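hiii, so i know i said id send this last week but things got crazy w the move. better late than never?? heres the sequnce for the chain we talked about at the cafe, plus the structure i predicted for it. fair warning i was half asleep when i ran it
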Amino acid sequence: MAEIKQLYTLQTDEDFSRLSFPLNSREIRQLEHQILENGCTTPIRVWNSYIVMDFEVYEICHKHKIPFSIVKLPLKERIEVIAYVCQMQIKERKMTEAMWRYLVGKRYDCERLLGKHTVAKGTASKKRGRPSLNNFHYDSSKVGTRQRLGEEYHISETTVFKYGFFMQRIDELYKYVPELATHIQIGKIRMSQEHLAELVKMTPQKLKELSGLILGADGKCKSYTMVREILDEYVPLNTVAKTDNEPQLQIKNTPDYDPDLEISSLALTIPSWIRVINRTQKAVHNQDTSTEKRNTLIGQLLNLQSAVNDLLSIVKEML
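okay and structure toks below
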C-alpha cells in the first residue's frame, strides 16, 4: 500500500541502481514535463530506506520539490529484491539487448541461489512458477530455474546459462573499470563473448589501461570498429603459446582448415528447412493433428528461434 505523498529522502545503492536501464535525454525531458504537469502519480518502489526503481522520477521530484508517494516491497533479503527488480525492469522498460541479457542472467543467478537456500532450509516449494511478492516459489535445482526462465522469456535453458556468464563477467569488470562495465552492460560498447571472457582475466592495471584506450579522456566510447581494433591488438584470441617441451604432433595428409566450412554448410541446409516449414504450415491447419505433437513442435520452434537469434547476434557483431 502506497504511503502518503511527501518529499521523502531515500538512499541509493549501487546494486539496485545498476539494474536500471537509463532513460535518454529526450525521455527524461518528457518525464519531467509529465510530472510538472500532473504531479507524481506513480509510487516509487523502495526496500527499507533504499530506492530500488524509478530513480529518474525521484531525482525530478526532488529537483522541483514535488511530493511523491512510496510503496515498500515486503521482501526480507536483498537478493530477493534484486531478482524482483530484474523481473520488473524486463517487464516494464524498453532496453538494449545487452541490458536484457544482463538482467536475465542476474535474475537467474539470484533465483538459483534462493532455490539453493530454500532447499538447505527444507522449505523449497514443490511447485514451479514465477516468484511473486507474496509467495515465492523457487526451484529446487538450478536446472529447474533455467527451464522456467527459458519458458518465460522464450529462450533455451542453455541461453539462460550463457546470460548468467555474461552477467558475471560484467560484474567482475565493475570492480576495477566501472565506467567500461556500464558501457558494455547497457550496449554502448559491443564486444564478443570471447573478448569479454579474456578481459576478466587481465590484471586491474591492464584493465584500466584498456578502458582508457576505449573510452578516451572524455569518457565517450569509440565506434564499434575502433573498439574491435583495440581489442584485437590488446586482447588477442587463440594465441596460446607452446612451450619448448610440448610435443609437436604432425599429421600427414590433413586437409587445409576452412574457417567458412560450418557457415557454408548451414547456409546450404537452411533452404531445405524453410521448405519443410512451409509444408508443415498446411498440416498445422488440419484439425486431425494432435495437441501433443503441436505442443512438441512449439517447444522445438522456440528452441530453434533462440538458437537463430543467438547466432544472428554473433554474426552481426562480426560485421
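btw DSSP finds 13 helices and three strands in the chain. thought thatd interest u
miss u guys!!
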